[in-house]
Write a structure and sequence with these properties.
Layout lengths: L2 H15 L2 H10 L1 H24 L1 H8 L16 H16 L3 H25 L3 E3 L2 E2 H17 L4 H16 L8 H17 L2
Helix pairs in contact: 1-6, 2-3, 2-6, 3-4, 3-5, 5-6, 5-9, 6-7, 6-8, 6-9, 7-8, 8-9
Length: 197
């Protein structure tokens, strides 16, 4: 993969890493206040996305500063920002009483997704699906496993949940399925299942 392709992907992944701020707010504000503020933020992002999609002039104006990180298909449909925000909100809503599950979920969404894209662009040699390489998928798995081990979750639960998160990242993005929405939910659910006694 060309160096320019990798450099074009980096700002997008840095933007994805900002979702780790949601976890910081969660730890600082507590679950109830985080749910309130995340719900408001999700509504604001959703309203901006709806306005962007219904008003072409607004769409051009709002996307202009983000031309380097917006993918061509996102110009005419909901962007990754909305899916990431909604996925984070739902992770808090369904798993917010388990800080480890939330940390793992958002860590996988931010770091696993970034590792898949950057690893695939930098190292990808073996295509395994449309826009997917073995190297990118293994990079995602390694990053998610690393998140679990960093959190002290142990090898078996971390590997199980990392594999589930990686499966979501591997699935093709469609107008009805986006890994940025589903990865944190599947990661947290798989972790809770793996940690059940």
């Amino acid at each position: 993969m060309s160096a320019s392709s990798l450099l074009r992907e980096m700002p997008r992944k840095i933007f994805h890493l900002m979702s780790l701020l949601y976890y910081i707010f969660y730890r600082a504000l507590g679950l109830k206040r985080t749910l309130f503020w995340m719900a408001l933020w999700t509504l604001a992002v959703g309203a901006a996305e709806a306005a962007r999609l219904f008003f072409p002039a607004w769409n051009r104006l709002i996307l202009r500063p983000f031309t380097r990180i917006v993918r061509p298909e996102e110009k005419e449909r909901v962007s990754a920002l909305f899916h990431t925000t909604l996925g984070s909100l739902l992770a808090f809503a369904f798993f917010g009483k388990n800080p480890q599950a939330v940390a793992f979920a958002l860590g996988c969404a931010a770091l696993g997704d970034a590792a898949a894209a950057l690893g695939g662009k930098a190292l990808g040699r073996h295509a395994i699906g449309p826009g997917k390489t073995l190297e990118g998928t293994l990079s995602c798995l390694a990053a998610c496993l690393g998140v679990g081990l960093f959190l002290g979750l142990g090898w078996a639960p971390s590997l199980f949940a990392a594999a589930a998160a990686t499966a979501v990242e591997y699935a093709p993005v469609t107008p009805w399925f986006n890994d940025n929405l589903w990865m944190p939910l599947v990661a947290a659910a798989a972790l809770q299942l793996a940690l059940r006694k």
